Amino acid sequence: MPTGRPSVESLPKEPLARLLAVMAWLRDRQHGCPWDIDQTFRTISPYTIEEAYEVADAIERDDMLALKEELGDLLLQVVYHAQMASEVKAFSFDDVATAIADKMVDRHPHVFGDLEIADADGQTVSWEARKAAERAKKAPSEPVGALDGVARALPALLRAEKLQKRAARVGFDWKSIGPVLDKIEEELNELRAELYARQPDPARITDELGDVLFAVANLARHRKVDPEAALRSTNDKFERRFRYVEKRLAEQGRKPAEATLEEMEAFWQEAKTRA
Fold it and tell me: Which pLDDT tens digit goes with each residue over 48-61?
């Protein structure tokens, strides 16, 4: 990096090198941005997660212009973490890029080697086997469990699905949909019992509600439905219909807080016929 105060003219022309230089200058202790200098891995982590969701949102909306922008924001997060790591001599951006390229080559022996894999299901089996081998190599003295490597920071529904998939690969799974539905009914009954207990225990209610959500995630997995996508769709549907309720009330010069539940329900039913 050049010395002295940064200038636009001093930045590299090649796009990735330019981005890396911009981030290095932002973190420069003498000439950088005070906010950027103050950040740590932990303070930046929430932004990294947020940007990943914004990428998913742009894809859901089929907005290519937004997707280009959001992918840039997500790339910035990778560059940000790599820059902070390079400052403590842990690793560099090049190390990150090299590691992921090597991993992709290793996990695709049917592309970069002689292994024959017939279809996507076969690739999934091969991928998971290689991931398990990688985990075992990282901790050779520790027994490798079926659930190892499922990140705790994942959204809860997504993590539930991944845990269930891992357990299913070693045979811990129902073979048909019937027992899955029965389990949901069982968990709902247990939740109902806690809700109507003489002295409801908030901790027990939370526990039973979690069991219901876990069972519903299992149903989604069995039917090959992405539970996160399903809930996002329902969130969008709820928002769309509630905004219609607000609009209809506004036409009468009122707000939801000024209407009865019965009045709002009537407009809600109207909204359902429209979308």
Answer: 999 998 998 899 88
